[in-house]
Design a protein that fits this description.
Layout (H helix, E strand, L loop, with lengths): L11 H13 L4 H7 L3 H4 L1 E4 L2 E4 L7 H13 L2 H10 L23 E2 L2 E2 L1 H20 L12 E5 L6 H9 L8 E5 L4 H8 L7 E6 L6 H17 L9 E4 L3 H7 L6 E2 L17 H7 L1 H20 L6 H14 L5 E6 L7 H13 L17 E4 L10 H6 L6 E8 L6 H19 L3 H10 L4 H7 L11 E8 L2 H22 L10 H14 L9 H13 L1
Parallel strand pairs: 5-6, 5-7, 7-8, 8-9, 10-11, 10-12, 12-13
Antiparallel strand pairs: 1-2, 2-13, 3-4
Helix pairs in contact: 1-4, 7-11, 7-14, 11-12, 12-19, 13-19, 14-19
Length: 545
């Protein structure tokens, strides 16, 4: 019942794509536009408040046709049905992958049990609790209103909540939201400087309540809290999002304030449920519901639309086209909104933890590239940083540009200047600047012949750099839910085609286990067998710490 195990490179469509690549790899995107005046209409998807333009890519209609044939040959539709249907597609951990159930409006059955009822109950509990905090009805130990929230978690328990709360800052209420993730004590100390323990609520987010970084930080925060506020009641200032009720209670948390994490929700896809409590506290339950609504609408789009009109499918296929045929190792995500500055970091975990796999679903080493290195920053800041490499470097780097038609704050020339840069950069990446254009420009500037010879090659831009443009009407909770969900489904499609398991993360475990062993060595007089480099590093640290 798990996902089919089809090596994509053994399919007929992969062979056809290889042949097609040889004929198209040197094609000019600009020439495609000259050949087809309707290209921008042919290579776009308009859906609700989203306008996705993928015309500035080294593709033609045959490319899309062959990529969709690949989807059919690996039976993507069947995989999508299993994904939403609760089948245990996370086979290595024997789990279903049902974060979509946290935003669904339908009944969802898992092993003949309707889990939608439980989802509604948890959501109701989160909503009631959030309203009590936001309204001030929930009081601290000294009967004061809560002013600050500190989310203590790491990985999916941090990157999603911090990204969304920052992205929706415009919609935030009076509560100040803080995040502690890194086990680096400096992170803890600097955060605690900003808060008053008497009016602060701490959320410990850990499924097992054993995550080293999170529990170390939680214990340090608890110790600080009791030292600064000896009369404080831990049960009125600490709550938990966890599956381990007993461990949370032992910490001092009231069972009434332990919110569950389900086994069928992976950490990096968990913002839609209890892990999103800090988001709900920041923007209120109604806005949080809008995030879920947007994600649900994207779920329906992904499930129902034919592949050629399906935004996550098309973007996933373009990504595979570049990764597996053009040997592009990285993709850059550039949001033209300061509110979305943490989106690239969030997507790094979502994409690279999911699809950074070197064994296929048959348990065999893969013979082809999987995963993408994701990076990025906001425009226009990034234009003054790494765009030099995009325009004139030797790397082939496809890009996603994300922008909004309507600004959230007062409409002025700031937003027009921002978006003019968005559009100009995608055009410049595609068209570049030819030698003739540079010569004309230098002659108009009255450069001498010697100076022209000297600077000419440095002012030429090769162009033909591909990009997707995702243009959204406005950054709202609902549109953000759609955007996050779009990338979730893109990840899923890539994993299906690459024949890998996208929903486990065994690669996270090895370093953590070794770190625990080394910690024991640092805290004792024994150093076990290591390579000489690691052994000397441990000795140097112990000697001088």
């Amino acid at each position: 019942m798990s996902l089919k195990k089809i090596d994509p490179t053994k399919t007929k469509s992969w062979d056809n794509l290889n042949s097609h690549y040889k004929t198209i790899k040197s094609s000019s995107i600009s020439d495609f536009f000259k050949e087809n005046p309707f290209r921008s209409d042919d290579f776009k998807i308009e859906w609700e408040d989203f306008y996705v333009d993928f015309s500035k890519n080294i593709i033609n209609s045959k490319t899309i046709k062959l990529l969709i044939e690949l989807c059919k040959e690996v039976d993507l539709k069947n995989s999508i049905d299993k994904y939403f249907g609760g089948v245990k597609i996370n086979s290595t951990e024997n789990r279903s992958v049902l974060h979509t159930a946290l935003r669904s409006k339908e009944k969802i059955f898992l092993e003949n049990i309707d889990i939608s009822k439980n989802v509604k109950e948890v959501k109701s509990k989160l909503k009631k609790f959030s309203n009590k905090i936001i309204s001030g009805k929930f009081k601290s130990s000294s009967e004061k209103k809560i002013t600050d929230i500190v989310n203590i978690g790491i990985g999916g328990s941090d990157l999603g909540p911090i990204m969304v709360t920052h992205a929706l800052k415009h919609y935030s209420n009076h509560l100040k939201i803080h995040f502690i993730s890194n086990v680096d004590g400096d992170h803890v100390v600097e955060t605690l400087k900003k808060i008053d323990p008497e009016t602060t609520l701490f959320i410990i987010v850990s499924k097992t309540f054993t995550t080293q970084e999170t529990i170390t930080n939680a214990n340090s925060v608890k110790k600080w809290f009791l030292s600064k506020y000896p009369n404080g009641d831990v049960s009125k200032h600490f709550i938990a999002v966890s599956s381990s009720i007993e461990k949370a209670k032992k910490f001092g948390i009231s069972e009434n304030y332990i919110f569950p994490m389900e086994d069928w929700v992976g950490g990096r896809f968990s913002i839609w449920g209890s892990v999103g409590l800090s988001i709900m506290l920041s923007i209120g339950p109604d806005n949080f519901e809008e995030i879920l609504e947007g994600a649900y609408e994207m779920d329906q789009h992904f499930k129902d639309k034919p592949f050629e009109e399906n935004i996550p499918v098309i973007l996933a296929l373009i990504s595979i086209w570049y990764n597996n045929f053009f040997n592009a190792e990285t993709e850059v995500v550039i949001p033209y909104s300061e509110y979305l500055k943490l989106l690239p970091s969030y997507l790094q975990q979502a994409v690279m933890e999911s699809n950074g796999k070197n064994y296929d679903r048959n348990g065999n080493p893969v013979s082809y590239e999987t995963g993408n290195i994701i990076w990025g920053s906001t425009g226009t800041n990034s234009q003054h940083a790494f765009f030099q490499l995009l325009h004139q470097g030797t790397k082939f780097i496809p890009s996603d540009f994300i922008g909004f038609i309507e600004p959230l704050n007062n409409k002025n020339d700031h937003h027009e200047k921002l978006m003019s840069n968005f559009f100009a950069q995608t055009e410049a990446l595609m068209n570049g600047k030819t030698e003739d254009e540079v010569l004309k420009e230098l002659n108009e500037l009255k450069y001498s012949e010697d100076n022209i010879k000297r600077v000419l090659p440095f002012k030429i831009f090769q162009g033909n750099k591909p990009s997707n443009s995702i243009l959204i009407n406005k950054l709202t909770p609902k549109s953000l839910g759609k955007l996050i969900c779009l990338y979730e489904h893109k990840i899923f499609v890539q994993g299906v085609i690459w024949n890998i398991f996208s929903f486990d993360q065994w690669g996270v475990e090895l370093g953590k286990k070794l770190a625990n062993n080394i910690l024991n060595e640092i805290q004792s007089d024994i150093i076990f067998t290591h390579d000489e480099s690691t052994k000397n590093l441990i000795k140097k640290f112990k000697k001088n710490s």
